């Protein structure tokens, strides 16, 4: 049998074949009794959204089963434009300033493929959602990393995600004539940090000074706690013309499997994203877009009112966050209290003696700990070092990430596992 002698793999895939989610989702499915690893709710999407989908399926409009406009179902892009006009304080054209994507994941992919070229540098703030680095590399760019640095409170209180901050001089040093873009994720996954106006102002000032784009991943924009405010960097001076905002119906409406996302930004940037979109996925599911459009129409009418889902959901999730914080703190896994998102990071230093050491292992400790925990305790989480570059990951191997967007019964089951584990440690 003849064999091909030439390499099969495209060079752009070299070194990015491994994926944390493939490995750890498989472990969770195989071993976990309680899965607080992958970031999806195990509670239902809101009734009004499910009812909208049912109407779209059975309402007699057979065209909802066919193609719609490639760059976004007209009812959806129109209502998104209306909504973001309120949020940004500027007029938007739904046909040129909004594009619908297959989840925020494809929105990110379009950004990197359309706007990053060979030799371009892209600044990524650590910890970062893990797809940013491989997507930069697939576009031919070079990722440049700058970490958020923890500043623990001196009064003995639990650390907050706000205690993880950028060093202004260090950040400024990463900008150069080769810098094409910076990726901003606020609220941040995995840390739950909500960037302050001052921090965003610093980033904006550097973007304007160096003529750099901003890919602003805002999928958790409504999930902000303790009275904090999510500030959109595109609303700051000089930033609209250089920012692509990325959003997600999956996170906004607790329906991650629907895979409806969007980008909002100036036409001069989005025209290039449309080129990538039309030559890759081309089109997103019409019925899902119709249901999401109806969900936004409801929220537009209830904007800022107590009955709004965007008001109710963060209140519910803040209670779940507080439950998990209390459970982790009680057993000695010190949580970092998140200001937003589905996630919190916990320090596992006091549990290190539970996990057998592996001589000559090059696997980070948090990976080994998390694998041991799911196999021996039935509790699934994600190692924090998965959200760091190779250069920095060994500095953050005493932390793991939990998802608290779960039913109360799921969080109680996790608490029971932790309590039993603590009792075993002290007996």
Describe the structure.
Helix content is 39%, strand content 14%. The chain has 427 residues and is of the alpha/beta class. It folds into 2 domains: 152 residues, Aspartate Aminotransferase, domain 1 (Alpha-Beta Complex); 256 residues, Type I PLP-dependent aspartate aminotransferase-like (Major domain) (Aspartate Aminotransferase, domain 2, 3-Layer(aba) Sandwich). A 7-stranded mixed β-sheet has the order 2-10-9-8-7-3-4, sandwiched between helices. Strands 11-12-15-14 form a 4-stranded antiparallel β-sheet, with helices on one face. Helix 5 links the parallel strand 3 and strand 4. Pathway: Amino-acid degradation; L-kynurenine degradation; kynurenate from L-kynurenine: step 1/2. It comes from Ptilonorhynchus violaceus (Satin bowerbird).
- What strand order characterises the main sheet? 2-10-9-8-7-3-4
Tally of domains: 2
Structural class: alpha/beta
Name the helicity range: 25-40%
Instruction: Report the order of strands and helices.
Output: HEHHEHEHEEEHEHEEHEHHHEEHEEEH
Q: Indicate the proportion of strand residues.
A: 5-15%
CATH superfamily of the largest domain: Type I PLP-dependent aspartate aminotransferase-like (Major domain)
Biggest sheet overview: 7 strands, mixed
Number of DSSP-assigned strands:
15
Q: What oligomeric arrangement do these chains adopt?
A: single chain
What is Rg?
22 Å
């Amino acid at each position: 049998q003849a064999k091909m002698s030439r390499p099969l793999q495209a060079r752009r895939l070299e070194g990015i074949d491994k994926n944390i989610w493939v490995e750890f989702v498989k472990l969770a499915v195989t071993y976990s009794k309680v899965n607080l690893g992958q970031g999806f709710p195990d509670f239902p999407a809101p009734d009004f959204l499910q009812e909208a989908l049912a109407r779209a399926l059975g309402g007699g409009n057979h065209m909802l089963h066919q193609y719609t406009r490639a760059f976004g179902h007209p009812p959806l892009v129109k209502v998104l434009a209306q909504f973001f006009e309120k949020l940004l304080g500027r007029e938007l054209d739904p046909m040129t300033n909004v594009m619908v994507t297959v989840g925020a994941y494809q929105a990110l992919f379009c950004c990197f493929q359309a706007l990053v070229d060979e030799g371009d540098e892209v600044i990524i703030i650590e910890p970062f959602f893990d797809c940013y680095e491989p997507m930069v590399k697939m576009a031919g760019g070079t990722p440049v990393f700058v970490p958020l640095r923890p500043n623990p409170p001196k009064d003995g209180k639990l650390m907050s995600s706000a205690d993880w901050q950028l060093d202004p001089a260090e950040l400024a040093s990463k900008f150069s004539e080769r810098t094409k873009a910076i990726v901003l994720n606020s609220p941040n996954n995995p840390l739950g940090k909500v960037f302050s106006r001052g921090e965003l102002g610093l980033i904006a000032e550097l973007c304007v000074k160096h003529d750099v784009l901003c890919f602003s991943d805002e999928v958790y924009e409504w999930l902000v706690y303790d009275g904090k405010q999510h500030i959109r960097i595109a609303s700051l001076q000089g930033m609209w013309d250089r920012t692509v905002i990325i959003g997600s119906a999956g996170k906004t409406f607790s329906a991650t499997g629907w895979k409806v996302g969007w980008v909002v930004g100036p036409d001069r940037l989005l025209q290039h994203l449309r080129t990538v979109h039309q030559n890759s996925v081309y089109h997103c599911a019409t019925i899902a877009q119709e249901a999401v459009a109806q969900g936004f129409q409801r929220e537009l009418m209830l904007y800022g009112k107590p009955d709004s889902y965007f008001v109710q959901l963060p209140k519910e999730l803040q209670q779940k966050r507080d439950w998990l914080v209390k459970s982790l703190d009680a057993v000695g896994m010190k949580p970092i209290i998140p200001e937003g998102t589905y996630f919190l990071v916990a320090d596992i230093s006091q549990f290190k003696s539970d996990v057998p050491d592996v001589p000559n292992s090059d696997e980070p400790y948090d990976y080994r700990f998390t694998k041991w925990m799911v196999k021996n305790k039935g509790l699934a989480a994600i190692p924090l070092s998965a959200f760091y570059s190779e250069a920095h990951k060994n500095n953050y191997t005493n932390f793991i990430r939990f998802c608290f967007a779960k039913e109360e019964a799921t969080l109680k089951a996790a608490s029971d596992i932790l309590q039993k584990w603590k009792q075993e440690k002290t007996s």
